[in-house]
């Protein structure tokens, strides 16, 4: 599975949220300032070549659907993040999140409870 650029990932987040979309619908769901229709079309062609979306011809246009589940891409991205920035250690990632105040003690305790429940 290839990596996505920030712009490609922005398009994929919308595609993942819905089953099937036309380019105009994707553009409408994008934040301001909205990219041009042709720009989104170009990203979708790239995403199709990377295997992330499939397209189906409907009349004179195409609809786009996800070919890769969001969870699979998330797993790949998180594994890359762990290996590239935290020496493969989830503990180092967790520690970083606490130090950066991205997790408070209540959240840490909740995560600990979930870990214990999964055992």
TrEMBL record:
Protein name, per record: Transcriptional regulator
Pfam families named in the record: Penicillinase_R (PF03965)
Matches recorded under InterPro entries: BlaI_family, WH-like_DNA-bd_sf, WH_DNA-bd_sf
Keywords: DNA-binding, Transcription, Transcription regulation
Origin superkingdom: Bacteria
Family: Belongs to the BlaI transcriptional regulatory family.
UniProt source species: Roseivirga spongicola
GO biological process entries: negative regulation of DNA-templated transcription
Single GO term (MF): DNA binding
